[in-house]
Amino acid sequence: MMLALGGLIALLAVPTARVLAVIIPLADLLILFLGVLLLLDRNPFKKLPSIQIPVLRHPFLNAYAYGLLYGPIALPCSGPLVVGIFAISLTTGEAFGILWSFVWFGLGFGLPLLILSLLSGALQHQLTTLFAKYSRAINVAGGLLLIGIASYDLSKNWEMLRLFYT
Question: Which domain holds residue 15?
Answer without folding.
Answer: 2-165
